[in-house]
Amino acid sequence: MEINDLITIECVVPGLKVTSKKQALQELSKRAAEITGEDERSIFDVLMERERLGTTGVGHGIAIPHGKLANLDRLYGLFARLDQAIDFSSIDEQPVDIIFLLLAPEAAGADHLKALARVSRLLRDNDVCEKLRKTEEPEALYALLTQGSSSQAA
């Protein structure tokens, strides 16, 4: 499971303007609905339900909200770099400015976990995150997110 299996250039949001966790999830749900063809409210509800189980703010300014939807045909990702960091109830209590949303079919099972692990591995790289935070163009962000995809598969 590689990042370029999850996102396209259209799935990269370089300057999301939000002021709260709820607003971030609403905006990302709206964009995910356009990409997946799923209902915006269904996506938002799944994400909020997951947040109630425990925060997806994994620390170091990063959140990986995720959920499963019955009608999805494959896994989808959506990357957003926020204009201003927001409180996301992260495990380290630090504000979040990088969000990688992951949506999976209900039957995804291990593929969902592999995708989460892949995204987590990428965003644990401090050099990658530093570059993501300094990059404005969607194309450049996409290139940073997917740069290791083909070389790491070998």
Please describe what this structure looks like:
By secondary structure, this protein is an alpha/beta fold. It has one domain: Mannitol-specific EII, Chain A. The chain has helices at residues 21-36, 40-53, 110-123, 126-134, 138-146, 149-153; strands spanning 12-16, 57-59, 62-63, 66-69, 76-86, 96-105. Strands 1, 2, 3, 4, 5 and 6 form a six-stranded mixed sheet that branches. A hairpin with a 2-residue loop joins strand 2 and strand 3.
Q: Give helix and strand order, one letter per element, not per position.
A: EHHEEEEEHHHH
CATH class: Alpha Beta
The Rg value, from CA coordinates, equals: 14 Å
Q: Portion of residues in helices?
A: 40-55%
Low-confidence stretches: 150-154
Oligomer: single chain
Total domain modules: 1
Structural class estimated from helices and strands: alpha/beta
Q: Determine the N-to-C terminus distance.
A: 13 Å
Q: What's the count of strands?
A: 6
What does the overall shape look like? globular
Number of helical segments?
A: 6
CATH superfamily: Mannitol-specific EII, Chain A
> Biggest sheet, in brief?
6 strands, mixed
User: How much of the polypeptide forms β-strand, as a percent range?
Assistant: 15-25%
Mean pLDDT metric:
92
Instruction: Briefly note the CATH topology name.
Output: Mannitol-specific EII, Chain A
CATH architecture: 3-Layer(aba) Sandwich
